[in-house]
Amino acid sequence: MIGNLNHIAIAVPDLKAATALYRDTLGATVSAPQPLPEHGVTVVFIELPNTKVELLEPLGEASPIAKYLESNPSGGMHHICYEVEDILASRDILKAAGARVLGDGEPKTGAHGKPVLFLHPKDFNGTLVELEQV
């Protein structure tokens, strides 16, 4: 069902500083910041030869990333994203197997303009999993 690793997301308290770290210290290619108010975050993507790293900064106090950073003030790995061919079929298979889909269970539009879903970390060894349709 799952395909390629699309990205690993890291929550950061200061997007500008984190972007500079990856760009200036590690020599990575970074995107411009992209606000995603529907998800409560601003994101920057770091392009790697085989995948991407997504830096997440809270956008507003109600952001799920703000809550994450309360427990992890320095930031840290937030989720991992896998690609799937058919997000609705994948959702239905996972739900039938007992996995919990977060939110209302319907795909939302993600940072790449494609449908995404999140799966409960308690069902995946403590890791928040995002699925993105390719």
UniProtKB/TrEMBL annotation:
Signal peptide: none annotated. Coiled coil: none annotated. InterPro entries: Glyas_Bleomycin-R_OHBP_Dase, MeMalonyl-CoA_epimerase, MMCE/EMCE_epimerase, VOC_core. Residues 4-134 form the VOC domain. The keyword Metal-binding applies. Keywords: Cobalt, Isomerase, Metal-binding. It catalyses: (R)-methylmalonyl-CoA = (S)-methylmalonyl-CoA. GO terms for molecular function: metal ion binding; methylmalonyl-CoA epimerase activity. It comes from the Eukaryota. It is an enzyme of class 5 (isomerase). One of its GO terms (biological process) is L-methylmalonyl-CoA metabolic process. Gene3D superfamilies: 2,3-Dihydroxybiphenyl 1,2-Dioxygenase, domain 1 (3.10.180.10). The keyword Isomerase applies. Belongs to the methylmalonyl-CoA epimerase family. Methylmalonyl-CoA epimerase involved in propionyl-CoA metabolism. This is Methylmalonyl-CoA epimerase, mitochondrial. It comes from Cyprideis torosa.
